[in-house]
Specification:
Oligomer: single chain
CATH class of the domain at 308-383: Alpha Beta
Order of helices and strands: EHEHEEHEHHHHHEHEHEEHHEEHHEEE
């Protein structure tokens, strides 16, 4: 799974990326600080299932923190997008091509309304940022279709799937979009406006967007956030710099802080400057919004926008462990409605090829190949070994 962090220049994308990954990237108060995309690991937060089972988990890649388990996902911070990007303006072509493998997009907007679409210090309604990104992405998808028009014109809808499959969209989705728009699927010879409407539908399905209303602590942000929430998007108030500050303070063992929490505990004597900074975050961000918004942003994207659930594959269905005795050693994020057979493919292609059956370790029952998996299932896949 790959989530792209996008937006106009100087909106706080790289600060959010650093806060989510603690991968320090260059940030500055000018456009195009990010030129090459930064890739890192963020974590979605879920309940520590082992505690319910009176067990102690020993994960391979996840992180356990008390009642919570943090599951790694890939994040991509790409270059800022300016008007005309689909025509190559700024770093537009590079930006857009970097987004091809993304499953979803987090758009960072300046909720204070103090930086324009060029990343300069000018007033702007943040809603303009959302509309501008929609338009650039729609033109980008339409451009992909137009550049390949000779491969699809006068052919059926399957020819479109061949050129758009890299965007992570399925053939039946493409057919649904065409049906909704009453477009001819058997012999494609669409008008310009039909191509653009179809491209818009592809963008909505293949690159769902969630809005990170950054700088939520600024006085002008509250009204702008209320207006953003009137749009047809999930909008999360975020203070990227607050999240980054708290995580760095936690890393230095000055405070104890669990991402997504509404407070923190001070562990050491702090300087006046440190006290003032942390007090500001507590009173202007955590007390107002309940968190910095950063963790909620990832969880909302993965569990609500992409509709993922958490499944625990194991080898020993009695001890809930792998062959070395590690309890709940790994998690898999799978789409709602995923089957045991599909889970087998995510674990390893050899396991899917040798698939025989599956066992629900918590319910202690065999489950069918096409059964829908439930959230927090513990599953053993039985397969023929090569």
């Amino acid at each position: 799974m790959l989530i792209g962090i996008v937006g106009a220049p100087n909106k706080g994308k790289s600060t959010l990326f650093s806060a989510l990954t603690l991968h320090m990237v260059e940030t500055a108060d000018y456009p195009f600080t990010t030129i090459n995309p930064n890739e890192g690991t963020g974590y979605v937060k879920t309940h520590n299932l082992a505690k319910d089972l009176n067990l102690v988990a020993k994960p391979k890649h996840d992180i356990i923190s008390g009642e919570y388990r943090f599951i790694p996902i890939r994040l991509l911070d790409v270059a800022g997008l300016v008007p005309g990007a689909h025509e190559g303006r700024g770093l537009g072509n590079q930006f857009l091509n970097d987004l091809i493998p993304a499953d979803a997009l987090i758009q960072v907007v300046d909720a204070s309304g103090e930086t324009d679409l060029e990343g300069k210090k000018n007033s702007i309604n943040p809603i303009e940022e959302v509309k501008f990104l929609e338009e650039e992405l729609d033109y980008w998808v339409a451009g992909i279709i137009k550049r390949n028009w000779d491969k699809v014109r006068f052919k059926d809808i399957k020819s479109l799937f061949a050129i758009l499959s890299g965007l992570k969209i399925f053939e039946n989705d493409i057919e649904k979009i065409a049906n909704t728009l009453n477009l001819d699927k058997k012999r494609i010879d669409w008008e310009e406006d039909e191509i653009f409407s179809f491209a818009k539908g592809v963008r909505k399905l293949s690159k769902p967007i969630i809005i990170a209303a950054n700088k939520c602590d600024m006085p002008s942000a509250r009204k702008n956030i209320e207006n953003l929430k009137k749009l047809d998007y999930a909008v999360i108030p975020v203070s990227s710099i607050s999240e980054l500050t708290l995580k760095k303070a936690s890393q230095a063992k000055l405070i104890e802080y669990v991402p997504g929490s509404k407070n923190f505990d001070v562990l050491k004597e702090l300087s006046n400057e440190q006290k003032n900074g942390l007090n500001y975050i507590q009173h202007n961000v955590l007390d107002v919004y309940g968190s910095t918004g950063a963790q909620e942003l990832l969880n909302k994207t993965v569990f609500d926008i992409l509709n993922m659930i958490v499944v625990y594959p194991v080898e020993d269905e009695h001890k809930y462990s792998d062959s070395q005795g590690n309890v709940l050693p790994e998690t898999k994020l799978v789409p709602q409605g995923a089957t045991p057979y599909e889970l087998a493919g995510l674990i390893h292609t050899d396991i899917q090829e040798g698939y025989k059956t599956a066992f629900d370790a918590r319910k202690k029952i065999m489950i069918g190949r096409e059964n829908k998996l439930e959230n927090n299932s513990i599953i053993k896949i039985v397969f023929n070994k090569k």
